[in-house]
Amino acid sequence: MHRPLPYDTMHVEYFLLQVETIMISIYPTIYHTFQCKADRCENTCCQLWTIDIDETTAERYHAMTGPLGESLRQAITVDDEGSHFVFSKEQPMCPLLNENGLCKVVLELGEEGLCDTCHMHPRFYKYIEDLELCGVGLSCEASVELLTEDMHSNQVIFTIEDDNGEFSPDERLTIQNIFELLAFDIDPALFQYIPSPDAQYYTRLLDLYGTTEPIDEEWTAQISALSHDIDKLTTSVQTYVATHDMSLFNKVFQYILYRQIDMLADYSLEAILSYAKDGVEYILMTSALEGSPLKQVARWSQQIEYDEDNVELLLQHYEATKNLLV
Q1: β-strands 131-136, 24-28: how paired?
Q2: How far lies 309's CA from each of 22, 55, 77, 240, in Å?
Q3: Could you read off the pLDDT of 282-326 as tens digits, one per residue?
Q4: Helix (H) or strand (E) holding 85
Q5: Would you say 101 and 36 are in contact if contact means Cβ atoms under 8 Å apart?
Q6: How do residues 224-278 score in pLDDT, each as one tens digit?
Q7: Rg of the chain over CA atoms, in angstroms?
Q8: Under a CB-based contact definition with an 8 Å cutoff, are residues 306 and 139 in contact?
Q9: What does pTM read for this prediction?
Q10: From edge to edge, which strands make up the β-sheet containing 131-136?
Q11: Is the dihedral of CA 156, 130, 302, 98 positive or negative?
């Protein structure tokens, strides 16, 4: 399945309306150092997705002259909902990448020549009253790599800015501090990920993930492989936990929580915590069996975080079963 790449700013129009009223902005420290790896990326975002092109950019692309304009029009699919870049099994990579894996649009027009989705990805912005939550998505290889850079901490650290200068530029927050800003008084232990290799738990988790809409055939095959021998899987994860540092997994747990804070408007804290816990546990399973934990984080994010239907499906499940969860 090739799904739309979300433009995660809660819609451009809403963002523009909020610019004048936002008082506090929060950023993970990795946001400030993020840089696209371009041709050095082994898991480029310029594949798999259907990319919606905003109307203004689409008009510019359709009117553009020269070889680039011709290449753009050949790459664009137009339907009743607008203009899109659509990738398929036959054409999995964006046709606008050159032989070196670099974007022809950026090379000729600069980043300002990109459509809104391509220009903003993997950045996201979410709004809770006068609080702006900013970040870079974990589907991006570069984002995940940045999480591993500070090996002296197993916490995600955030910066905070405000229009009135109430916060110092040197001030740093943890995920717990952000929840406190939102008036949540939560046991600090709930923000720490604890691996839970257990055969019954893993069976339930894999059955649940098997109901999500797959991004591709590899996702379905991976769930099948993990489910083949649950006892062996559980033992492999136990061994992995005993022999590997869990700092990355704890950071991913906190980062998943951070990205879903705005969902507390519709779902309970228990549901959000279960969503993050199961996500990291799945990443741990795949890391134990296949290795490459950074790749596993990005793959999970592409499959779950970047499909709003899958996020909703899971959160609804956790909400319905929150009193039954062990």
Answers
A1: parallel
A2: 28, 24, 23, 32
A3: 999 999 999 999 999 999 999 999 999 999 999 999 999 976 544
A4: strand 82-86
A5: no
A6: 999 999 999 999 999 999 999 999 999 999 999 999 999 999 999 999 999 999 9
A7: 20
A8: yes
A9: 0.86
A10: 123-128, 131-136, 24-28, 158-162, 172-173
A11: negative
